## 1
Amino acid sequence: MSPEKLSPQAIEGELETLQDWTLREDGAAIFRSFRFRTFSQAFGFMAECALVAERLNHHPEWFNVYSRVDVTLTTHHVSGLTVQDFKLARAMDRAARRGD
Ligand SMILES: C[C@H](O)[C@H](O)[C@H]1CNC2=NC(N)=NC(=O)C2=N1
């Protein structure tokens, strides 16, 4: 059963629990730029998140340059946000704290 597209109100509620993420202008994605001390830490973060994404069957759109990883989360099959995006965002926040 694929998750339902979240309403703007539900998205607002979810974002209140995720201080470091911002809602994209079109309201269909959330964004965070992670900063690490080294490239190795950034890549280790990506490797850990890749395994989480596979487990959730929900995958990020991300860009890495050196110690920075920019992440955009959206649910392609509803062209918007679902609980899967916020579940992955929380997992990524946890992984980033471990990588510090
Ligand atoms: C077939 C497979 O379940 C789908 O392609 C999954 C895979 N990962 C996904 N990731 C994201 N971000 N959005 C999706 O809609 C999505 N769908």
## 2
Amino acid sequence: MTPLLSVHGITKRYGAHIGCADVSFDLYPGEVMGIVGESGSGKSTLLNCLAGHLPPDQGQVIFDTRSDGPRDTMQMREPERRMLARTDWAFVHQHARDGLRMGVSAGGNVGERLMAVGARRYGNIRSSAETWLERVEIDKTRVDDRPSTFSGGMQQRLQIARNLVTGPRLVFMDEPTGGLDVSVQARLLDMLRGLVRDMNLSAIIVTHDLAVVRLLADRLMVMKSGHVVESGLTDQVLDDPQHPYTQLLVSSVLQV
Ligand SMILES: Nc1ncnc2c1ncn2[C@@H]1O[C@H](COP(=O)(O)OP(=O)(O)OP(=O)(O)O)[C@@H](O)[C@H]1O
């Protein structure tokens, strides 16, 4: 099987300081990869390099495109990469405000994504938006309300609807449950797990919360000071960590 995403030797420096160093992995269709590590370990730098938000100094990010097969996304022209970001890719930010348009209604937030990929009929766009609101457990009577009138959990679910309505194949998530109350996190995680499974999504999830990867990720990479120190199947890594840093990470959670 061809990997959906093939990452080779991604390195990003900030001056003399290492953001992330020589990261490589393959991600297959329907697979979820978790990236964990303490603050400053390089998770966001790596995610932003993979998603094309930050140019790496070295390395390749090869994506298996629908039309032309595997392509190096760094070599793509900007319009091509923008199209990819609108169609096959999605990016869920930690703060819903960074991923939503706060001055536009909930339905508009979802519908404008459909318009960006060519949908034109108002009736269809509105009914798709309503369907997606219900799918993320937001009452469709809220379709004309602005996200600023929503709770934090609802805003995050709306951001997810906006991202998934176009049927992407790869979703990047940066601390998707960060900053939410524990009970709200649990509900969101449950919903995300259902959507990932139902849509056969591939995803890369950055988090410092091991419970999030335990629930969502098939595989795990542990980062420390910009380097991947351990990787493998999630249960294997968490139940039998080999690297002293992973052992520390796991045990510090167990002590909580
Ligand atoms: N714009 C920048 N300029 C200089 N150094 C940076 C910049 N962004 C990140 N860094 C440094 O690169 C390293 C990796 O940071 P990064 O934000 O990727 O880590 P992280 O694991 O995502 O942390 P957090 O969980 O706090 O977001 C850190 O040492 C950080 O200080």
